[in-house]
């Protein structure tokens, strides 16, 4: 890689990181190319050298957020495959999602906070990345069901939507600075695996 290419990649990464924070803070409508350029200490013309539009930047931000969570969960499942119990595999998958979600919050928060605000064309541009991540969970949960660890009447898609929705909601209330993400993952896994009700259920 040439020095010029390296500098270009560094600039692009800085723009993406800065933009992710701006989108989370101000929403889709509150961010312009001019605001991004000013926040990066760049001239607007220089920004257009790297990205053609705000939507192009946003698509990369959204995809990077999903990909980071996907990679974390895939690694967690790979590391626990074949040796861990069903409970531990579920706990590791939840922990992977939460760690990536809360530790890369600028990129991952953009997906949770502003996805419904963005133009339909931007949403469609991220669908393939989203569906790959959904397929990872559907495959894992389907394996648990096939192995007899989930009730036979559990709908995999509904369970996945409920679980990821609950995990994503932690962005609104959990502070990873004083909090322990692994402990939170353990609590979520325990409630999912062992339930919350005690005694006979009518």
TrEMBL record:
SUPFAM superfamilies: Homeodomain-like (SSF46689), Tetracyclin repressor-like, C-terminal domain (SSF48498)
DNA-binding region, residues: 32-51
PROSITE patterns in the cross-refs: HTH_TETR_2
Keyword GTP-binding (UniProt): no
Keywords: DNA-binding, Transcription, Transcription regulation
GO molecular function: DNA-binding transcription factor activity; transcription cis-regulatory region binding
Every HTH tetR-type domain range: 9-69
Entry's transmembrane regions: none
Pfam families: TetR_C_24, TetR_N
Keyword field contains Ubl conjugation: no
Protein name per Swiss-Prot or TrEMBL: TetR/AcrR family transcriptional regulator
Organism: Sediminimonas qiaohouensis
């Amino acid at each position: 890689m040439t020095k010029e290419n390296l500098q270009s990649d560094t600039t692009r990464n800085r723009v993406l990181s800065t933009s992710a924070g701006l989108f989370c803070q101000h929403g889709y409508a509150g961010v312009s190319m001019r605001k991004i350029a000013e926040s990066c200490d760049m001239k607007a013309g220089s920004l257009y050298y790297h990205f053609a539009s705000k939507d192009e930047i946003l698509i990369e931000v959204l995809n990077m957020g999903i990909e980071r969570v996907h990679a974390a969960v895939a690694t967690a499942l790979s590391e626990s495959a074949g040796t861990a119990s069903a409970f531990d595999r579920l706990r590791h998958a939840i922990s992977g999602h939460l760690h990536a979600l809360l530790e890369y919050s600028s990129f991952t928060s953009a997906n949770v906070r502003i996805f419904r605000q963005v133009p339909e064309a931007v949403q469609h541009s991220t669908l393939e990345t989203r569906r790959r991540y959904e397929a990872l969970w559907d495959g894992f949960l389907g394996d648990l069901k096939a192995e007899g660890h989930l009730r036979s009447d559990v709908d995999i898609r509904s369970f996945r939507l409920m679980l990821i929705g609950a995990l994503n909601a932690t962005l609104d209330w959990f502070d990873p600075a004083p909090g322990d993400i692994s402990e939170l993952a353990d609590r979520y896994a325990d409630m999912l695996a062992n339930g919350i009700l005690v005694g006979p259920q009518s």
